[in-house]
Write the structure tokens for this entry.
Amino acid sequence: MHGRSSYGPDGGMNTSNTRILACSDFGSYKGFIEIFDQNKPDLLLLAGDLTSDGRAEFWGPEVVEWVDGKFVVTPELKLRKTTHVEKFYGVLKHASRNSKVFVVKGDHDDDFEGDYDVERINSIKNCHEISGKLVTFRNIRILGLGYYETHYLRTLRPLIEKMKDKIDVVLTHAEQRRLPLITQIRPELIIRGHFGLGRYKANGVSVVSPLFPDCYTTMETQNGVIRKVDSWFYCTRAKKWENCTLSCAYTARVIEKQKSLWPWLDRVLENCPLARAERISHSIGSNLRTC
Ligand SMILES: [Zn+2]
Ligand SMILES: [Zn+2]
């Protein structure tokens, strides 16, 4: 006997066919609950910049004020960013009813003191803040590396030595310059917020950057082994989410450009449809500047 029939229907001992949804850098939460409900993941992984982000929709010229060279939080901005923060906790509550949720912290999660509250996250049933922690879910070993664990080399280097070859999935919010070091852990997959878009390889290790609402990632694992990773992009022309399976000349140019900048980056945006070129161009540009 093997597979689901060996175990109870509650999934507690069930190690086969685990569905995972991963997202990061929420510019907006619009449409996210629908994506979650459609995918019904067993596990939701969130890779930082969750309470704020460089691209977050609450920023805007009408809410940003500078007085004597200092940034002032206007009442309008406070209201709009509070709505964003509450949407994050709303997602945790919604998702945790039927799924486990692991979260790591991004740099923008410190934009407003107290918004990213580890105690509040951990107080929600099935939700765990895992920056700097190793957790296991159905035989999948997941290492959480928030922005601060990766930014400071004195923290990152010993973690890499300790975790090398022991990890299946690294969930991180990391700068581009830290990615080569993180690949030394040699995990099956790196889920990375902060920068990048779609699916690519760095030093031979698979990486996904599921920056929302441009992109999200779905995965399937069997007995702790990753069987399938899909990168979904929102097509502004077709007005729907599409699995990235076609390649286009535009993407090839992006790949070549990024390769010359970062030789260890094997492939950027493994595939993407031509229809999304404009959107991706915008996203990459904005990520380079703000995330
Ligand atoms: Zn970031
Ligand atoms: Zn970001």
Summary: The mean pLDDT is 83. The chain has one domain: 17-290. The longest helix spans residues 75-95.
